[in-house]
Design brief:
This protein is an alpha+beta fold. It is 54% helix and 14% strand.
Length: 701
């Protein structure tokens, strides 16, 4: 009988349901030999966009509504059930594609009565609306058991530290004068045990800190990406490089949370304990570590304030450098062909120089603190030796007690030194946290709590006196637009470059919101709709093709959970990409380089067009879909597309190619943000042809 581990069964469920699986998300699942925890399974399911319910049920009571499900067997083995027929249960597995039918009697002998049912999440889980500081507090609360263990280990480590000075005191004051070798041997064995315990505890607390940081790092980066995907397009910064740099700078926050800084924070309060013990041994000696601390603290505060100012300058310089680097790397070919390499190099030299000076100033502001910290430990030893000579001479202190005080003094100032060294990291971490917090604090697409789900889409689109401008100081792109597109209509939008066509299309997609008026989808205001649900019903082939590193199939399936080979073949046929697929030796497994560098412009556009056709949305938006096609492939596309489109599918087409207008029945003409023509194809074309000689500014097909 087929019996599998939980991870294998969960992967089978994800494969069956077409869920997006990320291998790192499955780390929460139990591995072989570990204790099973269904809460971890539920967390992994949530990561993959699934809801999981655990319940008790007899095999005979499992219905189609419970499928697919994982049933728990004896000896902590599991099995995935995807189908029930005539009292038999179909066991699915990725390892055995054909699966296996098992009878009720055969399964009953090993079944424990527990099943895990899966279903698609009704509403996609969105990233928390909390911003980073509050988010960190939430994570800290969830990881409280980790930090309780760290705190206990820290207390034990610092208490064990007291053993060495006490041992030193006893050796010098008691054992050396009497030469008590038996006592020395016993104490030596005891100290060896202390050293072993100290080693184990230090290693454990470092592991606990690093493990907690690993969890926070993973969750924070998932949180950041989830929030970035939610942000409104109109709210994003003008520079893509700024977004990239803000996310990269978050590494400084993770660095601050690393073991060294956290352990320094935890060890710092024990300065009081060690100073108190020094005071009990010899009161006056406690003034030395207190004096060192009195010097370190104000200088650390001054250094922190100075570094914080320098960090702002360095961040601005690095932002400009990152933005320019991103721009150059994206348009490297254009820079070379335009002969702009010298100008680019000069601009880069200027930015690098500015960044280098800002970095130097930032480091120099911390030099005083670093120098003082390096001398603090030596100062403690020297100060205690000098004071200790007078204390021993006056009979108030023994030589053993002096050595004990020196050890305790060095141990007392060690966390203060580490903490002072962390000031520089703290300044940059706070700046990086503020930068990413400002970015994530922008308005999100689904910030309202009353978003309406869109289970189905008819395709009725209405613009009610819509106007739009990018900024309050800029002129309007769209001016008082009113139009209505019925479900199943084939509509072309024509107009000169800059007339507002693409803005109108982006408004239909929910990427920008009108500054005045309303956009209605099936009679409901677009701003009130759940955009994730709404976007699942339409398909877009944008003017600028977007191709990603991966395989041809992964690019075609972007945003899709499952599609048959027949469906892919049909979409590629409609987009005139079928010839390219046939030439690829690996077919749909053909590797695509980053940004589609190994594809021609026409192939990239055809791939994006095929991706839109795979979705088969009720609304199909094509923005200059054949601008990179040759005449032959454009004619072929016009012949093939009508056979692929469904009768109830709405088509919105933006084009300057007159050949494509045979695909539509209605034409809307836009000029300078206003609709100047809206009628049947034949009438509008006749009107345009009539006006063309007289008015050169009139948009044409």
């Amino acid at each position: 009988m087929l019996k599998f581990h939980l991870k294998d069964c969960f992967l089978s469920v994800c494969h069956y349901m077409g869920a997006d699986v990320v291998s790192e998300d499955l780390e929460a699942l139990t591995r072989d030999g570990q204790e099973f925890d269904h809460w971890r399974l539920k967390q992994a399911a949530a990561y993959c966009g699934l809801d999981m319910i655990k319940k008790r049920s007899e095999l005979i009571d499992i219905t189609e509504d419970d499928l697919p499900c994982i049933i728990q067997l004896k000896k902590k083995k599991f099995m995935t059930i995807t189908e029930i027929r005539n009292g038999e249960y179909f066991v699915a597995s990725r390892k055995y594609p054909l699966g296996l039918w098992l009878s009720l009697s055969r399964l009953s002998s090993v079944y424990t009565g527990t099943i895990f049912c899966f279903s698609e999440q009704k509403e996609k889980a969105t990233a928390s609306k909390l911003l980073m500081p509050a988010w960190f507090r939430t994570q800290m609360n969830e990881l409280r058991p980790h930090y309780v263990q760290i705190l206990l280990a820290t207390v034990m480590v610092n208490l064990l530290t007291l053993a060495l000075p006490l041992f030193t005191n006893m050796v010098f004051d008691k054992l050396i004068p009497t030469f008590a070798t038996d006592t020395l041997l016993v104490l030596g064995i005891g100290m060896l045990v202390v050293v072993i315990f100290d080693f184990v505890l230090r290693w454990l607390r470092t592991y606990f800190v690093d493990d907690a940081c690993r969890i926070i790092e993973k969750r924070s980066e998932q949180f950041i990406m989830g929030r970035l995907l939610q942000l409104k397009q109109s709210e994003l910064p003008d520079s893509t490089g700024r977004i990239t740099h803000a996310v990269e700078n978050f590494a400084r926050v993770k660095e601050f949370l690393s073991g060294t800084v956290v352990l320094s924070l935890l060890d710092a309060p024990f300065f009081i304990l060690f100073t108190l013990v020094i005071g009990l041994i010899s009161g006056v000696m406690a003034l030395i570590p207190l004096g060192i601390a009195a010097c370190l603290i104000p200088i650390a505060i001054y250094s922190y304030r100075s570094t914080r100012h320098r960090a702002s300058q360095l961040t601005r310089a690095n932002n400009a450098k990152s933005a320019f680097l991103y721009e150059v790397s994206s348009e490297l070919e254009a820079i070379k062909t335009l002969g702009a390499t010298r100008k680019t190099q000069a601009r880069w030299r200027s930015l690098v120089t500015l960044s280098a000076w800002a970095s130097l100033a930032s480091k120099q502001s911390n030099v005083l603190l670093n120098t003082l910290v390096a001398s603090a430990s030596q100062s403690v030893v020297i100060g205690m030796l000098i004071v200790g000579v007078f204390q021993i001479h006056s009979g108030n202190l023994s030589s053993g007690s002096l050595f004990a005080c020196i050890i305790l003094g060095s141990r007392a100032v060690a966390p203060l030194m580490s903490l002072a060294m962390a000031v520089n990291r703290l300044s940059f971490s706070i700046k990086a946290l503020k930068e990413i917090n400002d970015l994530l604090g922008l308005a999100g697409e689904d910030d309202l709590n009353d978003k309406l789900n869109v289970p189905t889409l008819k395709g009725l689109i209405e613009f009610d006196k819509v106007s739009y401008r990018y900024k309050a100081t800029e002129p309007e792109i769209l001016k008082n637009i009113s139009l209505k597109i019925e479900p199943g209509e084939r509509v072309a939008i024509l107009g000169a470059s800059g007339s507002g066509k693409s803005t109108l299309i982006r408004m239909i997609q929910g990427l920008v919101e009108p500054t005045e008026g309303n956009v209605m989808i099936d009679g409901r205001n677009l701003q009130h709709l759940n955009l994730d649900h709404y976007r699942s019903h339409y398909a877009v082939a944008p003017q600028k093709p977007s191709v990603f590193a991966g395989t041809l199939k992964s690019n075609l399936m972007l945003g899709q959970r499952a599609a048959s080979t027949k469906k892919l073949d049909e979409a590629c046929y409609g987009a005139c990409l079928d010839g390219f697929v046939q030439k690829c030796s690996r077919g749909y497994a053909h590797e695509i380089m980053e940004r589609g560098e190994n594809l021609s412009g026409g192939q990239r556009q055809a791939l994006c067009l095929a991706r839109a056709l795979v979705r088969q949305g009720r609304l199909l938006i094509l923005d200059e879909p054949t601008s990179a096609y040759d005449n032959y492939n454009e004619t072929l596309f016009c012949q093939r597309l009508p056979g692929i489109l469904k009768d109830d599918q709405t088509l919105i087409l933006i084009t300057h190619r007159q050949n494509l207008l045979q695909l539509v029945d209605r034409i809307i003409v836009i000029s300078e943000g206003r609709i100047i023509g809206d009628d049947s194809r034949s009438r509008v074309l006749k009107e345009l042809n009539y006006q063309r000689p007289a008015t050169s500014s009139t948009p044409t097909a």
